[in-house]
Q: What sequence folds into this?
């Protein structure tokens, strides 16, 4: 596949690793913000090939993992409402709420369907005029334009049986929260390439300046990640803290103006709770008043939700890199991928889940530090 | 987060007043909303995320990235010897 | 070295649901294994089979060395490019027998039909099953038909049994792989699963692709002729895909495996669809390929014999069995990761 295969060339990967080894003079701790990048790093084992001392911390950039319990519990309650079709990206079906997940809701008779695009949910609403179709609109800035267009399109077509349960999150406030967290070890960031394809990168410049961290907008293929890591390390080695763009083939400085305009029209910025981290001011998107009619929160009265997050989980410290899973009493005992207590164990790409499946246990603690 | 893959725009038309098109990903074709890629023409590659083109691939930049990497190889070879 | 789970498409793990059957229990993954191991087999009490779970059971009747298998087929849509539920039922059952080096002697086919199914649909499926049986050289000797009320079944289910006679001198078993065995794959992976997926509402896409559904017993006969008892273990990687089949053999045999990612034959459209949906081809269902663990010294001969058959024309060696440990993939950039079993169904993802 063009624009994928070229960036998976093992020979060039070896070159990048050699160059990285050449420029690295001391240990550095970097964070890739995006779950998609975590996925490539973990699947390709890139972190194991990095020169000694370069540590990758997996960031909070998995919208699935950071979706608050309250939203999940609300989605389950809406799904259980007769006459409803709850639609979602496949990722969301296994996320545990306080008591259950959407797959289990489906087994109990709820009509829960996976869609590839929010536009498919609009089509479903058009084809099923006697049912309420709800789309669980999660994701970062990358997904927001698609969800905005679904709302705009439903409005244009006069489709009244479609609504969205919005839990959009924004990357820069999350990075700020990571940097402000006590004990933050992150010295440089790989910024999320597809978020920047939509938003551009100018909003990262104040961050780089204020916290004196290099930020490199990075793509998703192995060579992209290796080059992004190399560019970040070069900046650190040279004492620079700039915003650079490794992913120039897809990302322009101002992002995608049409997509940003649609986001601005349909959504407004709001405070948002992040699972495992807590509420971050101005870190999410919610529907503007103009489109409030499409808000599933208003359309469905599901009563008072009693949300319970597990008290033993130290997800916030894990996500900021302040603690490793081995510092957590619940890790590997009450908290496993099968019975996750929090976000880093919920997401198979989360740090705790990665540790667990790698067979790292408490007793290895001294060896691993 | 944000799985997006490049595909080639094979055709462009309108549907319900929206700019849409068929995008070919190496033998798989999918209808994609092109509302956010007004500049995309047939033959261009676009990055598609959840059924939307979010960016048109800049072929020159793509080439440049690879050229930089290959050039790095030449430098390394000279430095490290054959 | 450190193993990291790619955890493709398993973001995130489910809450254990103990009270109801989930779709994931039928996925061929860990949930399926738990359902069989903790509920279904123990429920059989003294009637339960001993030993590892095989594609087909070996039954000794007097002097005859027979293999017996049963299978249920549920597929949406009933007709897909490259096959349908009728031909797939015949191929799947023939293949389950073939994985024990048994040539099919007789099949039975039962239909569970939902009231309201258009008769031409049933006729077409039945004719397709018949044609597939003729082409495989096996009679369908018995059958049954039940009709249930509208909504009590999804259009049409097909249940089969297969009886086979085992080839002399070989006894391939999921538990018989040895360290050092070459791991051979008879053809490209993922075509069936992606073809079926392409028809799904809400995911639909057009693909230059047909299901690989086909019988493999003649391929097995050729492999046995070339390799004899060097053919240690065979599995057709249906539900759960290649990764699950490798893990089943590794676990039952007490061996590990190292697979070279770059050697895995993945057709371009399969790769494209998997990239698009965030799936891993290694977990996608197949209906017309097999994975074999063969003693290293006979591997080349067996591979050559496979390539002489049309259904094995693209056979490749994908890796080697090792002493122990998990199934590991050597990635394109030279690192290694564990190729684990999925918990439940592989879901399309955006992350």
A:
């Amino acid at each position: 596949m063009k624009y994928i295969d070229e960036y998976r060339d093992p020979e060039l990967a070896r070159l990048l690793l050699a160059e990285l080894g050449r420029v690295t003079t001391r240990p550095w701790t970097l964070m890739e913000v995006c779950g998609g990048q975590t996925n490539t790093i973990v699947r390709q084992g890139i972190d194991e090939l990095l020169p000694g001392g370069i540590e990758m911390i997996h960031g909070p950039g998995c919208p699935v993992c950071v979706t608050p319990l309250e939203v999940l519990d609300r989605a389950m309650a809406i799904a259980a409402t007769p006459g409803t079709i709850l639609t979602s990206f496949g990722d969301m079906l296994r996320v545990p709420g306080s008591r259950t997940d959407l797959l289990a809701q489906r087994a109990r008779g709820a009509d829960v369907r996976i869609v590839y695009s929010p536009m498919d949910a609009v089509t479903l609403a058009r084809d099923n005029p006697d049912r309420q179709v709800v789309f669980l609109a999660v994701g970062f800035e990358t997904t927001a334009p698609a969800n905005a267009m679904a709302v705009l399109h439903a409005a244009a077509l006069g489709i009244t049986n479609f609504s969205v349960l919005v839990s959009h999150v924004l990357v820069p406030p999350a990075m700020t929260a990571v940097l402000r967290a006590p004990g933050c070890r992150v010295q440089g960031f790989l910024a999320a390439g597809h978020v920047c394809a939509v938003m551009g990168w100018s909003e990262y410049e104040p961050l780089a300046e204020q916290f004196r961290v290099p930020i490199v907008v990075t793509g998703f293929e192995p060579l992209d990640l290796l080059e992004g890591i190399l560019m970040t390390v070069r900046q650190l080695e040279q004492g620079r803290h700039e915003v650079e763009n490794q992913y120039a083939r897809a990302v322009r400085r101002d992002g995608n103006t049409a997509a940003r305009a649609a986001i601005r029209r349909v959504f407004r910025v709001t405070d948002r709770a992040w699972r495992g981290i807590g509420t971050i001011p101005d870190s999410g998107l919610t529907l503007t008043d103009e489109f409030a009619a499409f808000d599933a929160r208003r359309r469905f009265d599901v009563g008072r939700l009693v949300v319970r997050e597990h008290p033993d989980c130290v997800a916030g410290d894990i996500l900021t890199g302040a603690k490793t899973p081995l510092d957590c009493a619940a890790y590997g005992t009450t908290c496993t991928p099968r019975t996750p207590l929090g976000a880093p164990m919920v997401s198979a790409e989360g740090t705790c889940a990665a540790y667990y499946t790698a067979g790292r246990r408490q007793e290895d603690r001294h060896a691993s530090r | 987060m944000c799985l997006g893959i490049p595909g080639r725009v094979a055709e462009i038309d309108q549907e319900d007043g929206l700019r849409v098109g068929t995008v070919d990903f190496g033998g798989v074709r999918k209808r994609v909303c092109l509302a956010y890629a007004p500049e995309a023409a047939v033959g261009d590659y676009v990055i598609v995320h959840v059924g939307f083109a979010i960016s048109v691939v800049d072929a020159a930049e793509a080439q440049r990235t690879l050229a930089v990497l290959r050039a790095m190889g030449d430098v390394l070879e000279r430095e490290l010897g054959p | 070295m450190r193993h990291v789970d790619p955890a493709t498409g398993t973001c995130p793990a489910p809450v254990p649901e103990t009270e109801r059957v989930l779709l994931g229990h039928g996925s061929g993954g860990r949930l399926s294994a738990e359902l069989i191991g903790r509920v279904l087999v123990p429920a059989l009490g003294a009637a339960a089979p001993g030993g590892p779970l095989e594609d087909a059971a070996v039954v000794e009747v007097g002097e005859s060395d027979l293999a017996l298998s049963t299978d249920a087929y549920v597929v949406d849509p009933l007709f897909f490019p490259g096959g349908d539920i009728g031909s797939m039922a015949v191929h799947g059952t023939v293949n389950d027998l073939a994985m024990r080096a048994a040539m099919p002697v007789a099949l039975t086919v039962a239909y569970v039909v939902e009231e309201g199914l258009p008769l031409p649909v049933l006729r077409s499926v039945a004719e397709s099953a018949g044609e597939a049986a003729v082409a495989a050289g096996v009679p369908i000797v018995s059958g049954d038909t039940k009709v249930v009320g509208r909504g009590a079944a999804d259009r049409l289910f097909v249940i089969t049994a297969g009886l086979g006679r085992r080839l002399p001198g070989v006894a391939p078993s999921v538990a018989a792989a040895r360290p050092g065995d070459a791991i051979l794959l008879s053809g490209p992976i993922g075509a069936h699963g992606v073809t079926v997926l392409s028809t799904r509402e809400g995911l639909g896409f057009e693909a230059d692709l047909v299901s690989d559904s086909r019988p493999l017993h003649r391929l097995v006969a050729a492999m046995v002729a070339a390799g004899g008892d060097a053919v240690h273990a065979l599995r057709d990687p249906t539900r759960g895909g290649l990764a699950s089949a490798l893990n089943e053999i590794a676990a039952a045999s007490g061996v590990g495996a190292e697979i070279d990612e770059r050697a895995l034959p993945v057709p371009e459209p399969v790769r494209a669809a998997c990239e698009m949906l965030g799936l891993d081809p290694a977990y996608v269902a197949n209906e017309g390929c097999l994975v074999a663990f063969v003693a290293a010294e006979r591997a080349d001969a067996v591979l050559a014999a496979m390539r002489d058959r049309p259904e094995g024309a693209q056979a490749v060696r994908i890796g080697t069995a090792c002493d122990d440990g998990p199934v590991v993939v050597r990635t394109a950039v030279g690192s290694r990761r564990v190729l684990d079993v999925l918990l439940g169904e592989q879901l399309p993802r955006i992350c």
In short: Chain C is about 30% helix and 25% strand. Residues 1-15 of chain C have pLDDT under 50 and may be disordered.
